[in-house]
Specification:
Blueprint (H helix, E strand, L loop, with lengths): L1 E10 L2 E10 L7 E9 L7 E11 L5 E11 L2 E14 L3 E11 L8 E9 L5 E9 L8 E10 L3 E10 L2 E14 L4 E9 L5 E9 L1
Antiparallel strand pairs: 1-2, 1-14, 2-3, 3-4, 4-5, 5-6, 6-7, 7-8, 8-9, 9-10, 10-11, 11-12, 12-13, 13-14
Length: 209
């Protein structure tokens, strides 16, 4: 249960602002989150996304989730939705499948199927591999990514990651991030190094109650 704040200073597309509220929930309403995202600087590039997310375990090893999104951009206003499947198996492994824009996709924001598998050790470190492929656009390439999380001391986590398009180096990105748990709040700081252009910095705060 908490409030999440995030900010990415401006790049060529302008700054991005994030505000979220999450609730672990139970019973009929399950776990949920409400998210507000806004970006862009010029009138012809500003966009905003409001979304509500819900997830629930069906059994001890299978959970399902869904998100409904309202998106306003230079393309116009539209509704879209995502579907997800989360399946822990054995003791430390997790498989997941997400169908982005199951409805409401566009050429610039197409339907996409993303599958991942993750390992989380008893010592706290974790590794994930993910692959995504667009389903409704011939202009976008499949993407592959990996992320490694390493605990630093008793209250911090270091993250390193990499993502790239399979048929081009143009979209290659490296990620570095650190999360500190101060008890009353969590602080995230990260940087993305794209193949071309300057580094992109991000900062976030989570306030649990």
């Amino acid at each position: 249960l908490g409030v999440h704040l995030g900010f990415q200073p401006g790049d060529h597309d302008g700054p991005i602002r994030f505000l979220g509220y999450s609730d672990p929930g139970d019973g009929l309403f399950a776990a949920g989150a409400f998210v507000w995202l806004e970006g862009g600087k010029a009138a012809d590039s500003k966009w905003r996304q409001l979304s509500y997310h819900i997830g629930r375990f069906l059994t001890g090893h299978v959970a399902v989730g869904a998100a409904v999104k309202h998106i306003a951009s230079p393309e116009g206003q539209r509704w879209a939705g995502d579907l997800g499947l989360y399946a822990p198996f054995q003791q430390n492994w997790i498989a997941a499948l997400v169908y982005y824009n199951a409805f409401g996709g566009t050429d610039l924001d197409p339907e996409e199927l993303v599958a991942s598998i993750s390992y989380i050790s008893r010592e706290g470190w974790g590794f994930s591999v993910e692959m995504g492929t667009p389903l409704s656009s011939s202009h976008m390439s499949p993407i592959v990514a990996w992320v490694l999380d390493l605990p630093v001391g008793s209250n911090a986590m270091l993250r390193a990651g990499h993502r790239r398009y399979l048929d081009s180096d143009a979209g290659t990105e490296w990620l570095g991030a650190l999360r500190w748990d101060f008890g009353s709040f969590l602080l995230d700081a990260g940087v993305v190094w794209p193949h071309e252009g300057v580094a992109i910095y991000r900062i976030g705060v989570t306030l649990p109650f």
